[in-house]
């Protein structure tokens, strides 16, 4: 364990190292401490064992006096210089990740004018929607055409306008129902998954 070196400790070490009773095993550390220039911006450490030994070598110098005003010394880690190539590589990776995140973020956003007009519907789905809309208009047109045709034809049979209208509506709903059933059957066949037909190999 080391404590923060103070001026009083340094002066005491300098005096103790000259004493005949000073042990050789503490001499190297003591000499290093006497050569240090204390600076407020930089701290140095001294071992607790050396402080004990100094207090034993000097008369009138006590351990508790030597450690007064000090604290535990924690050696600062040396800041290693950064590798420019490694930093450039990491910056490149960060930039690529940011681009990927940005593309992922805007992928679900409607940006083009066509997409805005289509409400973000995919082209394949839009084609199917248009096909359904066209079919609906065709069915409605067929119903109107049949209604007009039946209504006109009923005038030659009867004079009651109410019955003429009812016959026209009945014809329109009939043709509409038939076309809806046919289209539903066609849509079911078109969208149903195709079953793979397995060919049987005839054996002799």
UniProtKB/TrEMBL annotation:
Compartments, as annotated in UniProt: Endoplasmic reticulum membrane
InterPro entries, alphabetized: ATPase_Vma12
Membrane topology: Multi-pass membrane protein
Keyword list, A-Z: Endoplasmic reticulum, Membrane, Transmembrane, Transmembrane helix
Keyword Endoplasmic reticulum: yes
Transmembrane intervals: 132-151, 163-184
Domain of life: Eukaryota
Main location: endoplasmic reticulum
Keyword Membrane carried by entry: yes
Name assigned to this protein: Transmembrane protein 199
């Amino acid at each position: 364990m080391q404590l923060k070196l103070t001026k009083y400790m340094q002066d005491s070490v300098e005096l103790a190292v000259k004493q005949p009773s000073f042990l050789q095993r503490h001499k190297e550390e003591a000499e290093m401490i006497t050569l240090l220039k204390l600076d407020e911006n930089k701290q140095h450490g001294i071992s607790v064992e050396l402080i004990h030994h100094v207090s034993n070598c000097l008369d009138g110098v006590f351990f508790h006096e030597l450690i007064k005003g000090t604290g535990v010394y924690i050696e600062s880690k040396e800041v290693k210089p950064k590798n420019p190539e490694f930093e450039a590589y990491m910056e490149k990776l960060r930039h690529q990740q940011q681009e990927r995140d940005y593309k992922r973020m805007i992928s679900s956003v409607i940006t083009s004018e066509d997409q805005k007009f289509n409400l973000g519907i995919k082209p394949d789905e839009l084609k199917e929607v248009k096909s359904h809309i066209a079919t609906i208009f065709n069915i409605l047109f067929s119903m109107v055409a049949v209604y007009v045709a039946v209504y006109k034809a009923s005038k030659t049979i009867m004079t009651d306008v109410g019955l003429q209208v009812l016959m026209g509506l009945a014809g329109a709903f009939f043709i509409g129902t038939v076309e809806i059933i046919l289209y539903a059957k066609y849509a079911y066949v078109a969208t149903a998954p195709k079953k793979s037909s397995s060919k049987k190999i005839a054996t002799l």
